[in-house]
Amino acid sequence: MFKPLDPLLHSELRLAIVSLLIGAEEAEFPYIKEQTGATAGNLSVQIDKLSAAGYIEVEKTFKGKKPCTVCRITSTGLKAFEDYVEALKSYLDVK
Amino acid sequence: MFKPLDPLLHSELRLAIVSLLIGAEEAEFPYIKEQTGATAGNLSVQIDKLSAAGYIEVEKTFKGKKPCTVCRITSTGLKAFEDYVEALKSYLDVK
DNA sequence: GTAAAGAAGTTTATTTTATAAACCAAATTA
DNA sequence: TAATTTGGTTTATAAAATAAACTTCTTTAC
């Protein structure tokens, strides 16, 4: 009846991050922060979780002299998102 | 960009309960328990929360000699669900 | 008739999660 | 050179989900 929802994606902020990355293929920390409205601390934590699960990849580099964290969706992350959307349908199709 | 998700509905079990009630208009506690696979304790707590928010109405009656808890969706709950689905789209439409 | 088991929940305790506050290092600006 | 800003991370707190334990009444078995 109701399919289980991946707890890693069933979180407002993490879902926003993944959604953003699927749309953009690459995004920097400050941009994600601005688009999601998250605090830096919360964003840092949630990015770590997504990264630890292999849903996104995180590259820490430098932009001139400033640190720069770039995030990208992985194929694992994309698949997880697609599965999540599919599972959600079991809750949203209420006919 | 990303619309906020009603925290009351953005919960796997509560979403399942509301989804079920929208589809059925009325359901008894044991049936909801069976359909969602939730434990009785968890279900009791989440039903209380939805009831306190006015998303569902709960009628405690008797079926013969046994207690019987019947739940129904309210118009507030239906509206909240529709808003939630609408907000979710901002995360799911990733073109 | 009474003891054990089952049904229908509720209450309470525990674990997990989300979130923000505090912090750090380097760079820029005043 | 002192203060502020940028780009984060770490840690502490608040909130949430969840299950375990408990309650009350009812059957069923002996």
What does this structure look like?
Two copies of one chain form a homodimer. With 95 residues, the first copy, chain A, is of the alpha+beta class. The first copy, chain A, contains four helices and three strands; from the N terminus they run αβααββα. A three-stranded antiparallel β-sheet of chain A has the order 1-3-2. In chain A, a hairpin with a 2-residue loop joins strand 2 and strand 3. Chain A has a single domain (12-92), classed as Arc Repressor Mutant, subunit A, CATH 1.10.10.10. In chain A, 28% of the residues are buried. At the A-B interface, helix 1 and helix 4 of A face helix 1 and helix 4 of B. The structure holds a DNA duplex (30 and 30 nucleotides).
Index terms:
DNA-binding, 95 residues, Arc Repressor Mutant, subunit A, alpha+beta, homodimer
Mean of pLDDT of chain A: 96
**The CATH topology of chain A:** Arc Repressor Mutant, subunit A
Number of domains of chain A: 1
Tally of individual helices of chain A? 4
> What is the H-and-E element order of chain A?
HEHHEEH
Low-confidence stretches of chain A: none
Please indicate the percent range of residues of chain A in DSSP E strands (runs of 2 or more). 15-25%
Q: Tell me the distance between the termini of chain A.
A: 13 Å
Q: What's the arrangement of strands in the largest beta sheet of chain A?
A: 1-3-2
3D shape of chain A: elongated
Task: Write out the CATH superfamily name of chain A.
Answer: Winged helix-like DNA-binding domain superfamily/Winged helix DNA-binding domain
Number of strands of chain A: 3
Q: Which percent bin holds the helix content of chain A?
A: 40-55%
Structural class determined from secondary elements of chain A? alpha+beta
Largest interface: A-B, 21 and 21 residues
Described by its quaternary structure, the protein is homodimer
The major sheet of chain A is characterized as:
3 strands, antiparallel
- CATH architecture annotation name of chain A: Orthogonal Bundle
CATH domain class name of chain A: Mainly Alpha
Radius of gyration of chain A: 14 Å
